């Protein structure tokens, strides 16, 4: 029966509103993560959405529709709309109608089992779906090509036919690896509760119902540790794909620090080295390298170089399009996607779910902040006028040029000087997308610089100096957007970004979210007001505001700096 003291409101548009300051909040939040998508989580009310994908993910994890209905009715403040209850049952009914099974007599083929005659007719009448079926071997049972396993799942999904893939996985070569209780750095090593929950949700006790999926955790919350924990569970040869050489080295260092594996068992596969070992860490960039658009991807052979039993896709939201293809061909391998935000501006999130696997774990950023696992951050947008002598050039420019002019507003250096003085002694990252802007500021303020052209050895040396305090300020290009471990950074000043990229805004905030003792973090965006940059800024901020962050807005004038904390 509805209870006005309950924290949940279920609406007829399948949105769910959850009151944060309610004694039952934690219980209901944990329950909702099983079958609903977290849309936004600001201060007082969190919004979830029930949709086909979230329900099919729930079904794949073994949750029954009856349990979901009972849960909603138990914790709803008001009566649950009848259309929601009915639609949940209808959507659930489609799941499991089509399954992929192992073919015991041909390792290059699988069985597609269709349990419902009407769904079978629907598939056979659609040329884009029928093409995957080779031969009918039994009633509602067809053979399909092993290598088209991923492509089939994506195609069927877009026609509202979820495919339950229970064909299992190939066994990779065995690898004995265990976590340490005391890390090599002499610090006690113990997983946090949410890291254990995320690992268990993916592994699913080693059954065929686990083994593929995506884990979403905020920057700075230890996604790498979750990946390492799962490696220690699956105990098999592992390929790890990540965003940069620096990230490769960070993975290597973390694995050596937290596990008992020996250094000779870990390989680096980058532009600098081409090692293939039981645990191999590779960059996306080297994988998608080819001499020209007509040539083959010469490094794709790494996927077949070993009998991998596990593949980790770090920053999976950045998965390059060519990798989607090879990923669709290796569906027999256990695979994990790690990300802070599964936001893709090309709307390919569903492809990630189909090819890598459904979301297995997610938690709101602000929840981990309250628990002390990530740093509290103040976000401040500082608006300033365009330099007067650039106004006419801006007004007559096209859209792209308008953005370039506004983003590189020369007055930004004056705001930057004020912020550097205000946070004197702090570890400060300054980030810009424009190399000319970076070089100009570096010259005027005598600051060290890291860009895409900076050799990896120099990058790592600069990062090392920043960590140990030899450098307090570092000026970086967008190469620092991802997978850079600089836990000491407490201030980030964003001079310019990639248009309206929500994902980039979130990743940049993540650079300063590592928890610090009695220290708040500060995230500044310097924006030219009344310009196209201001419009892009509003879009960039949307994801973070949905996570519960608010932006303090200040206006800068040449004669006075108003942003005070």
Would you mind describing this structure in some detail?
Helix content is 36%, strand content 19%. It has 565 residues and is an alpha/beta fold. The chain has 4 domains: 8-94, no CATH class; 98-165, MutS, DNA mismatch repair protein, domain I, CATH 3.40.1170; 193-363, P-loop containing nucleotide triphosphate hydrolases (Rossmann fold, 3-Layer(aba) Sandwich), CATH 3.40.50.300; 370-555, Rossmann fold, CATH 3.40.50.300. The strands form 4 sheets. Strands 12-13-11-14-15-10-16 form a 7-stranded parallel sheet. Strand 5 (98-102) and strand 6 (109-114) form a beta hairpin. Helix 21 (502-510) crosses helix 22 (532-546). It is globular, with a radius of gyration of 25 Å.
Briefly summarize what is shown:
By secondary structure, the protein is α/β, with parallel strands linked by helices. It has 22 helices and 23 strands.
Features:
MutS, DNA mismatch repair protein, domain I; globular; alpha/beta; 4 domains; Rossmann fold; seven-stranded parallel beta sheet; 565 residues; disordered C terminus; 23 strands
């Amino acid at each position: 029966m509805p209870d006005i003291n309950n924290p949940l409101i279920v609406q007829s548009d399948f949105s769910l509103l959850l009151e944060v300051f309610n004694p039952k909040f934690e219980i209901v939040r944990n329950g909702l993560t099983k079958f609903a998508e977290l849309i936004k989580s600001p201060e007082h009310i969190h919004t979830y959405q029930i949709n086909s994908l979230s329900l099919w993910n729930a079904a794949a994890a073994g949750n029954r529709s009856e349990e979901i209905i009972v849960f909603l009715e138990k914790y709803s403040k008001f009566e649950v709309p009848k259309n929601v209850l009915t639609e949940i049952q209808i959507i659930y009914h489609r799941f499991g109608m089509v399954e992929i099974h192992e073919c015991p007599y041909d390792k290059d083929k699988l069985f597609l089992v269709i349990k419902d005659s009407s769904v079978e007719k629907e598939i056979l009448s659609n040329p884009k779906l029928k093409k995957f079926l080779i031969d009918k071997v039994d009633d509602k049972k067809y053979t399909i090509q092993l290598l088209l396993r991923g492509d089939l799942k994506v195609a069927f999904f877009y026609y509202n036919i979820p495919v339950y893939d229970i064909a299992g996985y190939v066994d990779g070569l065995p690898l004995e690896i265990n976590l340490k209780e005391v890390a090599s750095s002499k610090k006690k090593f113990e997983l946090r509760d949410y890291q254990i929950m995320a690992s268990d949700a993916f592994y699913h006790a080693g059954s065929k119902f686990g083994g593929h999926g995506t884990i979403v955790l905020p920057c700075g919350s230890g996604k790498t540790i979750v990946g390492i924990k799962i490696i220690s569970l699956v105990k098999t040869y592992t390929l790890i794909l990540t965003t940069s050489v620096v990230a490769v080295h960070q993975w290597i260092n973390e694995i050596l620090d937290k596990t008992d594996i020996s250094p000779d068992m870990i390989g680096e596969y980058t532009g600098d080295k081409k090692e293939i070992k039981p645990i191999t860490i590779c960059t996306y960039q080297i994988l998608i390298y080819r001499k020209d658009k007509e040539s083959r991807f010469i490094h794709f052979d790494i996927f077949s170089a070993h009998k991998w039993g596990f593949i980790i896709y770090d920053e999976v939201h950045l998965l390059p399009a060519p990798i989607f293809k090879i990923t669709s061909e290796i569906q027999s391998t256990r695979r994990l996607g790690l990300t802070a935000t599964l936001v893709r501006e090309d709307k390919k999130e569903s492809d990630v779910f189909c090819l890598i696997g459904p979301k297995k774990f997610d938690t709101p950023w602000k929840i981990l902040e309250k628990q002390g696992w990530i740093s509290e951050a103040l976000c401040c947008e500082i608006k300033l006028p365009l330099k007067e002598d650039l106004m006419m050039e801006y007004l007559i420019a096209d859209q792209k040029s308008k953005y370039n002019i506004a983003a590189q507003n020369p007055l930004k250096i004056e705001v930057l000087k004020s912020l550097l003085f205000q946070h004197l002694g702090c570890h400060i990252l300054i980030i810009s997308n424009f190399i000319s802007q970076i070089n100009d500021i570096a010259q005027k303020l005598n600051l060290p610089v890291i860009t895409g052209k900076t050799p990896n050895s120099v990058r790592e040396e600069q990062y090392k100096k920043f960590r140990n305090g030899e450098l307090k300020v570092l000026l970086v290009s967008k190469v620092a957007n991802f997978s850079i471990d600089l836990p000491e950074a407490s201030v980030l000043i964003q001079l310019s970004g990639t248009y309206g990229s929500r994902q980039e805004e979130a990743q940049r905030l993540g650079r300063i979210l590592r928890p610090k003792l009695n220290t708040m973090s500060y995230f500044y965006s310097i924006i030219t007001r009344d310009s196209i940059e201001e419009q892009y800024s509003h879009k960039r901020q949307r994801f973070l505001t949905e996570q519960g962050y608010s932006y303090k807005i200040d206006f800068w004038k040449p004669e006075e700096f108003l942003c005070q904390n």
